[in-house]
Design goal:
There is one protein chain. By secondary structure, this protein is mainly alpha-helical. About 55% of the residues lie in helices and about 0% in strands. The protein contains five helices and no strands. Helix 1 crosses helix 5 and helix 3 crosses helix 5. The protein is elongated, with a radius of gyration of 20 Å. The termini are far apart. The relative contact order is 0.16.
């Protein structure tokens, strides 16, 4: 009996599954770093608790939400009219240059490091269970 096809199948399966074994711990580590960064860079103005707005809106459930739509939060007219849908790409671009994405935005803090933006986004995504 020729076992070569079985060996090839096993090898391919190992190549496909192996990265998945390391992805979850890496994502958890990135989210943990994101939490630290969120507390240091974002928590003065934002929370991740639904219904608890500060100077900026709560970021609980931010993924899939339309910009300027959190009830009770104060927004600039620019943000109210921006009509963005928050996802990883939109958050990445916005965090890098808030006033470049939404001229007239009251958000003054930008996150210049791509790694830090990715970690903060991973943290926000983890808060949403995803």
């Amino acid at each position: 009996m020729n076992t070569l096809p079985l060996k090839i199948t096993r090898a391919v399966l190992c190549l496909v599954v192996s990265p998945l074994l390391f992805a979850a711990p890496a994502q958890a580590q990135e989210a943990a770093e994101g939490e630290r960064l969120f507390k240091a860079r974002c928590a003065t103005c934002h929370t991740t608790v639904e219904g608890q707005n500060r100077v900026g809106p709560s970021l609980a459930g931010v993924f899939g939400r339309t910009s300027g739509s959190v009830e009770g939060a104060r927004y600039s007219n620019a943000m109210k009219g921006a009509n963005l849908t928050w996802d990883e790409a939109t958050l990445e671009t916005y965090l890098a240059n808030p006033r470049g994405v939404v001229p007239g935005s009251t958000m003054t803090i930008s996150v210049t490091s791509a790694d830090q933006r990715a970690a903060i986004i991973a943290f926000l995504k983890a808060q949403a269970g995803g």
